[in-house]
């Protein structure tokens, strides 16, 4: 059973958070599998970094916590590309940024 962000103590949450705040309900976006999740569901690894909550995420997402961003922060940083994204994402849905691709 993996340790989740919501199981952390408050001071650890402040150190491991990837969103704008340390809230468990705050939405996080994974740029590796392009899905959203609640920050509380993110997996905390032994080295204290936060990883994607989806078991079937790409190896990239499970190795590099840099693939996680706060949902609002990511949309702010990619305004035009994410203009069609909702305020509140849905679990399991895939959100592609326009103009980004192979
Ligand atoms: Zn992922």
Q: What labels describe this entry?
A:
three-stranded antiparallel beta sheet, about 100 residues, binds zinc ion, 3 helices, 6 strands, about 20% helix
List cofactors, ions and other ligands.
Answer: zinc ion
Number of helical segments?
A: 3
The biggest sheet, with number of strands, parallel, antiparallel or mixed sense and barrel status, is: 3 strands, antiparallel
* Count of strand segments: 6
SSE succession = EHEEEEHEH
Mean pLDDT: 89
Note the overall shape.
globular
Write down the domain tally. 1
Question: Which structural category do the helix and sheet elements fall into?
Answer: alpha+beta
Spatial ordering of strands, largest sheet: 1-4-5
What is the helical fraction, as a range of percent?
Answer: 10-25%
Q: List the uncertain runs.
A: none
Instruction: Evaluate the radius of gyration.
Output: 13 Å
**β-sheet strand percentage:** 15-25%
Terminal CA distance reads 35 Å
Task: List the SSEs and their pairings.
Layout: E1 3-4, H1 10-16, E2 27-30, E3 35-38, E4 43-44, E5 50-51, H2 59-63, E6 68-70, H3 71-77
Antiparallel strand pairs: 1-4, 2-3, 2-6, 4-5
Zinc ion binds next to loops.
What is the structure about, briefly put?
The protein has 102 residues and is an alpha+beta fold. It is built from three helices and six strands; from the N terminus they run E-H-E-E-E-E-H-E-H. It has helices at 10-16, 59-63, 71-77, and strands at residues 3-4, 27-30, 35-38, 43-44, 50-51, 68-70.
Q: Can you describe this structure?
A:
The protein is built from 3 helices and 6 strands, in the order E-H-E-E-E-E-H-E-H. It is globular and about 35 Å long. The chain has 102 residues and is an alpha+beta fold. It has one domain. The chain has helices at residues 10-16, 59-63, 71-77, and strands at 3-4, 27-30, 35-38, 43-44, 50-51, 68-70. The strands form 2 sheets. A 3-stranded antiparallel sheet has the order 1-4-5. The structure holds zinc ion. The site of zinc ion has 8 residues, from loops.
């Amino acid at each position: 059973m993996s340790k989740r962000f919501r199981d952390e103590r408050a001071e650890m949450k402040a150190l491991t958070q990837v969103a704008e705040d340390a809230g468990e309900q705050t939405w996080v976006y994974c740029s590796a599998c392009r899905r959203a999740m609640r920050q509380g569901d993110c997996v905390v690894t032994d080295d204290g970094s936060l990883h994607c909550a989806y078991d079937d995420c790409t190896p990239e997402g499970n190795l590099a916590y840099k693939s996680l961003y706060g949902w609002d922060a990511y949309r702010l940083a990619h305004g035009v590309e994410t203009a069609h994204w909702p305020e509140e994402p849905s679990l399991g849905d895939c959100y592609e940024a326009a103009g980004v691709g192979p």
